[in-house]
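[Q] Does anyone have a clean structure-token version of this?
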Amino acid sequence: MNEIEQLRQEFNEKISSCQSLSELNDLRVSYLGKKGPVQGLMKLMKDLPKEEKPVFGQKVNCLKSELSDLIDAKKVELEEKEMLSKIESEKIDITLPGRKPNIGTIHPLNLMWEELEDLFIGLGYQVIEGNDIVDDLYCFERANIPKDHPARDMQDSLYIDENNLLRTHTTAIQMVVLEQSAPNPVKVICPGKVYRRDDDDATHSHQFMQMEGLVVGENISLSDLKGTLLFMARKIFGQDKQIRFRPSYFPFTEPSVEVDVSCHVCGGKGCPTCKGTGWIEILGAGEVNPNVLKMAGYDPEKVSGFAFGVGIERMAMLKYGIDDIRHFYTNDKRFADEFKRFE
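[A] Here you go.
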């Protein structure tokens, strides 16, 4: 009995000095574990007289229960203490000024895309988008590009299988629109990404954006095309700009032209930017080839049309003074932040 009382006093002293849950757990194991002193008291019963065993056993069980209750109470106390300490350490001073969030900006290519879309929607054009993966029929054959044309070379185009490829121009969208619209008039712009086998450098990319326009109807002439593109150039680059047509060749159009705009740096006088010519090439265009109209279901004797293709990266580079197309794809926030003023 003296050992029981001594053990009780010893435990009370030790539990009062416990400062953490880990210390409390160590104390519990050392006293109530299989090798602890409480279990050792139970082993003494075999040496006691028969009549003393029940009383002694009851006392040991009471001690065990008492120690367990003390441990549970101390555990609650320490848990509360740790929680309060954690709350104190994580306390936030709500009177401090908040951090200003780092807000992104619209990408310059999206700015250019949206500006061109708004411009042509204002002229009555409908915006049509299509799939990046297209059938060879609509990407080439319906655009009057025969089987032996260099544009079909595997070095230029990214084929998925014999009949499907990543579109090399958004003309593929226009061919579908023509087929679905015949014989009704068409007035659409078709923006989207295009893909080609090309080495990336300051002015070329294997992936870039185009926005092609197409108008088909009665009495559509080359002068209508020039008026439309002059309006676009002045809206994008300034009201003092002029454009000029130079003869060119595209299978989709006949006649075909390259379109230049007067240099934004020298105003047409000649400088290093325009290589002394006073002009900068911005796009290709022309009247829709009669073969294209015929394949789509139109009568080229009754209707005509014009088409043009704008490179969105090229337009953005000219408007914003960007010297390397790769800047658009580096995800450098410092570059994007420069265009907040244009939003």
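[Q] Thanks! Anything notable?
[A] The first strand starts at residue 126 and ends at 127.
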